[in-house]
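Dear Dr. H.,

I hope your travels went smoothly. While you were away I took the liberty of generating a structure for the chain from your last submission, since the lab meeting agenda had it listed for discussion. I wanted you to have the full record in hand beforehand rather than looking at slides cold. The sequence, exactly as received, is reproduced here:
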Amino acid sequence: MDGATASPAALLARLPATRWWRGMPGTLLGLFVACAIAALAPGQGYYLNIIMQAVTYAIGVAGLVVVLGYCGQISLTQAGFLGIGAYVLALLTTRLGVPFLAATLAAMLICGLFGLLLGFASLRLGGHYLAMVTISFQVILTLVLTNWVGLSGGPDGVSSIPRPAGFAGGHAYLGLCLALLVLAMFYTWRLKLSRLGRAMQAVRDNEIAAGTCGIHVFRTKVVAFGISAMLGGLGGALFAGAFSYVSPDQFTFDESVVMLTMALLGGVRSPFGALLGTFALVILPEWLRFLKQAYLAVYGGAVILIMIFLPEGVWGWAAHRFGRAARPIGDWPVPPLPLLSMSGGGGGENVLEVTDLAMHFGGVKALDGVSFAVRRGSVHALIGPNGSGKTTFLNVVSGLYRATSGTVRLGGTAMNRLPPHERTRRGMTRTYQNIRVFRGLSVLENVMIGAERPGNDVHEPAAVMARALAALDFVGLRREASQPVGSLPYGHQRYVEIARALAGSPEVLLLDEPAAGLNSTEKQELSLLLRRLKGHGLTILVIEHDMKLIEAVADHITVLNFGKCIADSTPREVLTHPDVIAAYLGEPQPA
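The corresponding predicted structure, in token form, is as follows:
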């Protein structure tokens, strides 16, 4: 079957990004290596304990990759989740006789619940406030484990924790821990490539743009916290079995800082970086002990230098330095699926209506009773001098601002109380005056996020990729699909933003000054692109200062000045209206 005769689905299945078995050979190799390490490692003693600590910590640090590396939410309580997992397993196995496997699953679920609750309670905060909340949780947990003697055993902890049947020996239990580490790494790596993983990375890079791409920002953050906590619980449960003893001083705030350092040192955006950082910080001190009293200074200095000169971690530096360039997606013979599936075509009905819309910032009336309608299949321009309220209007319509009064209707449905992601679900997508692309992702991944908007009829990974490739084809950037979006010139990044909005097949496309920052050639290309979209029947509301562009593409123009609508008609009538001329030139022009 060749590229000329294969179906789109069959061709897309050949893309590395859509293969369900992607990463399986590496995982099987990892499991084989894990068995070899377990067989060659000491069966007991100090060095076995060091390896056990590194393996169980690495699983917990993988949780930091999810919450911090993928989602951008700082957590200084990961050792606390290890502690919860360890104590749940210890108490269930020693006091209730629960089998090790069932106790481990219970530890993960309980940690996940704690993570969800902590995320729900704290993730409306951000930055240093979020860090303070997670520190407080860690400190409170340590105090509870230390002082609730009846439950946790107090400072003496819990001892005689059994290992699972068949894995009581050092080699066997280490093999089990290593195998679960490999599976945890595989899960974390595949999560990054999934729809949820892309949503997390979009939230990390730009929460505002993520919301207007249809991503429920708060829910995504909470889920990231829950997954991170579950991985911490798994690591803690295995830690308890490895050492047969747990106590509060093993899971303090200091350990959370150490785990954060492990993630940052290795590379917080990759599970392999977390693995590298964990083993380095656990094993490196042992290698340096020959320096006697000086080894701590050398160890600390090495960590500081690495974090200063390799800000993306050792793995991040290695990936940039030695990683293979991705094969251009444009080389693949993949016929893209139809992109613009709207019901448009100039039916004449109003698809977007605003009535008496007002937005007040204290005593400033940014919008003051604005009313107009956008007809399906038309290009409707919103113009006005600087400070007239155009971008504020777009922010209110897309849900970033809550209107002081008035109504916004899309397809006859009131949108006023809906958050941005719900408005996107109903078919409203937008771009921004100041470009908001997701700089940690590739061009294709940026556009795939738009194609995955809730409410779209595209769900399968292959179909999502086809829709994204179609959008990139439409704006002429398919050859750059595999490139990091930050490596593109400014004008191409703006086209990526437009492609991302198009990929969701919107009912209404909102463009906020799409020609801003473009040179004359790029503006001509943009004009041609908007005409093509108009020819496909897409409904567009565009804000723009370039009057040549507006005259070339607009069917209808509305003019704002000081938050009020001063004209609303055809381009010919609006551009010769005395009030419009006065707003732009400062005085009416003689007839």
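Two observations you may find useful: The radius of gyration is 28 Å. The longest helix spans residues 217-243.

With kind regards,
E. W.
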